[in-house]
Amino acid sequence: MAAELTSKFPTVYLSRETFDAAKFSEKGEVSQADFENLIRTGLKPSKGTIRFKIGKNQEMDVYIVTSVRMDTMEQEVAPAALPIQWVSEPMTFTTSSSRESGPVTTASQPITLSILRTARFLLREQQRATSLQSSGADTASSVFGVAFKEPAALLGPVERPPAEKVYYYYRQKYKLKFENSTLTLSFEDQNGNQENVATIITGSPENWFLTAGGPLYAYNPHSNSSGGNPTGLYVGLNWTPNDIYDPDLRLLIVNILDVNTTNPASAVGLIGLGMGFPKIASFIPLSTLSVTETLAYNMSLSQFQLLTMVTYDVTDVLQLLKL
Prior knowledge:
The structure is a single chain. This protein has helices at residues 32-41, 315-322, and strands at 2-4, 12-15, 27-31, 43-45, 50-52, 59-66, 71-75, 90-92, 112-114, 119-127, 140-149, 166-175, 181-188, 194-202, 208-220, 225-226, 234-239, 250-260, 267-276, 289-298, 303-313. The protein is mainly beta.
């Protein structure tokens, strides 16, 4: 990933398969033209939460790109705040959706970065419970921090500015501490206010998930008729070959069991097949809509039925409740 530290609207990019990390050292320079070409050919803007299918002791690289040369100081365990001297007028971050409103930070205050580009980059890792685990598994890990500060001016003749604009990049390596984690990448100002720029979910692919919903239609094979719909709120166990954090279309969903939580004695879903639609942006309550045809046994009518079930993946809601 690359992030423009000095921009009022930090942009996060993900590497494409064509990105060659061997061409970049721990830190260096890249011309504006080469960087723009890299964005077109080797990088792609991130959208929403980022998914990395890597686990404990595996490394990830973060490239931070700035428009001025910076000094860096790494901290394996970052304290609450660095004793940084701010020597210039600050600039205020505004949200990408509205240039007039400030961002929401941990202290609900606008975040500021010095015009002299002094800031701190933070990477927080928190152990994450899987979709079917309880919240007791969540444990916060230590914080990895890097302070960025423009170096002191050199004594001697003043160098002429280069004819072509140059960017400076800094590569930071981080080794994961948990098999399943949530990583938060952010910048921090001198008051501890933070601007989150990316959220990353790591861990092996997850295929099991819970849904909540109900039947819209009931078909009775015995009498070749419809009716007797056992309505109620059903909670079901499901499997899909897709990773559940993949926002794209789920072409296959295997519905294994549906329990009517409103009236358990009315009917129970046994097994079904269906598909899931892409995620609806980041609107958590309606994360992923699924439609399945489920074989159920209606205990009130003492017969089998085919139920057309419309349900929602509640993984995001469960993860939210675990925080």
